[in-house]
Amino acid sequence: MTNTRFPVTFTSLAMLGGLWVVAAWLTDDPTTLPSPWIVGGLIWKLAQSGELATHVLATLGRVAAAFVLAMGIGSVLGVVMGRSAALDRWMAPWITMLLNVPALVVIVLCYLWIGLNETAAIVAVAVNKTAMVAVTLREGVRAMDPALDDMARVQRMSRIAWARHILWPQLAPFVASATRNGLAIIWKIVLVVEFLGRSNGVGFQIHLYFSLFETGYVLAYALSFVAVMFVIEYGVVQSWERRATRWRRAGLQRA
Hints:
By secondary structure, the protein is an all-alpha fold. It is built from eleven helices and no strands.
């Protein structure tokens, strides 16, 4: 499956690039929509100067910190809420509120309450994502097979063994889904955080070149970080997901 997936992915991206070429040709205005080779030249120029790596790494660091915080807190909340109906009833209104508060409001409030610093930036992003992780993991716990819990009680499994052999294998697809969606959403919120109140990062550079009406540089920074996310998605997340769900696929094949 992996061997057939790569050509399809490459062809799909090539088609998207072709649409970009056509749109740039029809627009015929590099200041509005520069061609892929113009943007590629800008990316190369920024990479050679070291400026691209500096700002991409700054954004990536914020994404990583916010992701770890949101996944950690959200996963614990989701599992506990899925296992306890009473706690779920108490926590559900809070989760619903966090899901519906606009990310921009959370970012502004964190900057007002904590200050224009890294802590506020990371907390703002993590708060925006934690509720989504909690909901995903809660639904994962609810979808677990109760017969496996019964088996664990009969076998008198320890809590560690239960978590390793019963809980984790069943939650792995939901964790993978939360990871994929989390990375996609978190990095976009991080850009807004940097746009509003940071002095480095991809979002800061996009804000800078937006004010200068430099579309090419805006696309150069945006596409560079999208490329990083592609590497993480296809090189890390999907690879880990295949290993984590190997037992499920094997069971389906035997059935």
